[in-house]
Structures are given as C-alpha cells and as structure tokens.
Design a protein that fits this description.
The complex is a heterodimer of chains A (about 220) and B (about 240). Chain A is an alpha+beta fold. Chain A has helices at about 1-35, 55-60, 190-195; strands at about 40-50, 60-75, 80-90, 105-120, 125-140, 145-165, 170-185, 195-210. Chain A contains three helices and eight strands. In chain A, strands 1-2-3-4-5-6-7-8 form an eight-stranded antiparallel beta barrel. Chain A is about 20% helix and about 60% strand. By secondary structure, chain B is mainly beta. Chain B folds into two domains: about 25-130, Immunoglobulins (Immunoglobulin-like, Sandwich), CATH 2.60.40.10; about 135-160 and about 180-235, Immunoglobulin-like (Sandwich). The radius of gyration of chain B is 24 Å and the shape is elongated. The N and C termini of chain B lie far apart (about 80 Å). Classes of the chains: A alpha+beta (about 220), B mainly beta (about 240). Chains A and B meet through β6 and α3 of A and β1, β4 and β5 of B.
C-alpha cells in the first residue's frame, strides 16, 4: 500500500512538474508573440493585377505584372496605416471594347489601414483596407509610347497577406487583394455602366523589412 | 569650346514635347449607325474606323507632315448595325470612314472638333448607303484624219460620299455625296486620241456629250451594268 501511495505521489509530482513546464512553454510562446510588436514596415513587391470581366476594359485586357513599394506604421498594437506607390500594366487584346490602343501603363498610389498580427513565431497575417487610392491609366497607341490618352480613376481595395520570417527583420510575403477602380470616363449613356469601374483580383509576392519593437502610440 | 548643357536640355525637352500626341482624357466616343446597300439590304462586315490627323511639325507652320491615327474601329454586324467605341480627339481633322471592300463605295465623315464634343459623346451617322462600284473605261480614237476636232464630256456619278460637318450640323456646301461629276476634254491635232477611265456606281447612267468640229452637241446615255465597263468611240 505504501508503495502504491509513493508511486501515485511520484506520478502526481511528475504531472505537476510537466504541467508547469508546459505552462512555461506556452507562456514563452505567448510572450514571444506579444513581443513581436513592430513599429515600421518597408515593403516592396511584385504585383499581378487580373481584371475581371465586369467592365469593357476588363473584358478587353489582361494584366501585366508590376511593382509597388510603400511603408506602414503600426499606430497602436497591431493596427497600422500605410502608403504605397506602384506601377503595373494592361495588354489590350480586344480594342473594340476600349478604343484603339494596344496597352496601358497604370501608375497608382494609395493609403491603407489594416491589422497585422503574429500567428506563429515566424508567421504574420495581415488584413488591410484601402479607403482611398488613385490610379492613372496611360493608354498607349504606338510602341514608342508618345501617342497616348489618359484615364483617371479612384479605387478602394481589400486585401490580405501572409508573411514568413526569413531572417532577423526580413520577411517574405504573399498577398491577395480585390480592387475596384471607379473611373472618370465619360461616354455614351448606353456604355457608361461598362466604363464606370474596373475590378481586379490581384496577387503579390515580395519582401518586408520590419523596424522597431513598439507601436507608435 | 564648352558645350552648353542648358541649351542642349531645352532643345531635347522641346523635341520630346513636339513628338507627343495626347488625345482627350477620360473620354470614349460612341459612333453608331447602320450600313446598307443601294437596295436597302444590310451590309455586314463593313469596317468603321475613327481617325484623327495631327501635324508633326511643332514650330513650323504649316506643319511639314501629318500623321493619321486610328482611335477606334469595328465592323457592322449581320443586320448592318454598328457601335464603335473610340477614343476622342479635339482636332481640326477628325474623321470617320466606312469601307466594305473594293467592290463598294466608301463613306467619309469629317468634322473640326477643336471646340466640339458631341452630345452624349455619341455620333449617330444614321443609315449609311454604300453602292457597288464600277470602273468605266473609255477609248476615243480619231479615224477621220487631220484637222478634225472633238469636244466631249462624260457626266457621271462619283463613287464616294464625303459629309462635312460643322459640329453637329451637316455642311451641304462642302459635302459631296455621290455628286454628279464632269470629265471633259478637247481632242484635236495636238492630242487626237484619248484612253482613260472614271469610277462610278454600278447601275448608274453616264451621259456622253460630244460635238465634232463645232457642230451641235449630241449625247448618248450609257448604262453602267458591269463592274468593268468598256466604251469605244471614233470620230
């Protein structure tokens, strides 16, 4: 009986010790995640916009990859604001939908708000919303790009990204965004709906460089 | 001698600016209508093209050369209807051309759009009629010997339709749509024979008016009923 009581006590002590160790590990991870706070992020990435068929420009074009870059500032905990500039393009395969030009060079800039948080020690997930962006479509008739027309648009965008820590402050990331451009194009009433917006599914890959270890506020 | 970089930069900038052609921002024009033949049947697959023309000289006037740019194009459907989406240019040489093939006449619309934007960004050409074309080849030969003279003329219908618009209004004085044309010559000892041709409408009539050695005019009416009509005359 004594032997049995000793064995039970030893097992109980071992269990308590094990629980304490597990608690410490979770604490360590939670602590590590909590200490994963950043101040700034510098981002540059490759982006491929894929226009949907919801507009004449979307029906007539295919997306050309481009680049964008920007900076994000963590205002409070994981909430951030950011600003980006970029350039991408469109190839026009059916100019009867758009007017006669062969390609578009699209420059854009936007302001974003978002939330990014660590989901593992090396993984960060971000959600972002662009309430205000501007884009400029330079529609080029000839190869030399000096014969052109310009369309202007404002856009909103909703996106998400997943970052993976490579080393120190360097992360690589992949992202997806849905973007809706509201154009300033004026045309005949029967075609106005076909030109008033251009929508995209956009994917991106790039690198992020995190700076600092506390939020701005 | 020191190179003057400021002047070089200014000249380079001017050259760059001088070579740029920018059409009206944030605008799409709709050109619509329908194409039919002289019998009222629709013509499918007629090509509609919207053009503007720009002088390539920047400082010299008149511009030493012009470049023509296609702003939009499409084809008529099986009912002959067309809706062409085009860019728009505010320029003195804005044009629309409708063309089927070499067997049909062509239609031309021109407008000075420098200070004109069509209502609703739409130009409605209505019904455009293209006619089958024919070439009328004639050969006139003198067989009566020296000293004989022939005054002659062909009255025929031209094979093109040019409509000139002042903003939204058709300028009838400058427009020339299947107008009657006259081709006239005098043949004499210096130039006794003639072999030439005119383009006209298949199914139309050509009036041949002539006078030999000052005698009263006579005339023949020639029906153009083949694509390549031949006509021979001797005096």
């Amino acid at each position: 009986m004594k032997k049995f009581i000793v064995i039970v006590l030893v097992l109980f002590c071992c269990k308590i010790r094990g629980q304490n160790n597990q608690g410490n590990t979770e604490k360590d991870i939670n602590s590590s995640l909590k200490n994963n706070q950043k101040t700034f992020v510098l981002t540059t990435n490759w982006v491929l916009p894929n226009p949907t068929n919801s507009s004449n420009i979307g029906k007539a074009t295919t997306g050309k990859s481009g680049i964008e870059g920007g900076v994000q500032l963590f205002l409070y905990n994981n909430f951030f604001i950011g600003g980006f500039l970029g350039v991408s393009g469109l190839d026009v395969s059916q100019p009867e939908y758009t007017g006669n030009y062969s390609r578009s060079s699209v420059t854009f800039g936007y302001f974003q708000v978002g939330y990014e948080f660590p989901i593992q020690e090396k993984l960060r997930l971000g959600l972002s919303f662009v309430p205000f962006g501007e884009s400029r479509y330079k529609n080029i008739l000839s190869n030399s790009s000096n014969v052109y027309q310009v369309d202007n648009a404002r856009f909103v965008m909703l996106g998400t990204h997943l970052s993976y820590k490579v080393s120190g402050p360097f992360y690589i990331f992949a992202g997806y965004a849905f973007r809706s451009d509201k154009t300033e194009i004026k045309t005949a009433p029967e075609f106005q709906d076909q030109f008033k917006s251009i929508q995209y599914h956009s994917v991106s890959f790039g690198v992020k460089f995190y700076i600092g270890n506390k939020s701005f506020f | 001698m020191k190179p003057n970089f400021k002047i070089a930069v200014i000249v380079f900038t001017i050259l760059l600016l001088g070579c740029q052609y920018r059409f009206l921002d944030d605008t799409r024009l709709l050109v619509k209508g329908d194409v039919e033949n002289h019998e009222g049947n629709p013509i499918p697959d007629a090509e509609i093209k919207v053009y503007t023309q720009r002088g390539s000289g920047y400082f010299l006037y008149p511009a030493p050369s012009y470049e023509k740019f296609c702003l939009g194009s499409d084809f008529s459907d099986t009912n002959g209807d067309f809706s062409v989406i085009s860019l728009y240019d505010q320029d003195e040489d804005f044009a629309i051309e409708i063309y089927k093939n070499d067997q049909y006449t062509s239609y031309y619309y021109t407008n000075n759009t420098e200070d004109y934007i069509p209502d609703d960004f739409t130009i409605n050409l209505g019904t455009v009629t293209l006619h089958p074309k024919a070439t009328f080849n004639f050969k006139i030969e003198r067989t009566s010997g020296l000293g004989n003279e022939l005054h002659y003329a062909f009255e025929y219908t031209s094979d093109y339709c040019l409509e000139v618009y002042d903003k939204a209004v058709l300028n009838n004085q400058q427009s020339q749509c299947y107008k009657n044309e006259i081709f006239s010559r005098v043949l004499n000892d210096d130039y006794p024979n003639e072999s030439s041709g005119v383009n006209t409408l298949l199914g139309s009539s050509i009036v041949f008016i002539y006078s030999i050695n000052g005698q009263p005019e006579e005339q023949q009416i020639i029906a153009v009923n083949s694509v390549n009509q031949e006509f021979n005359f001797t005096y």
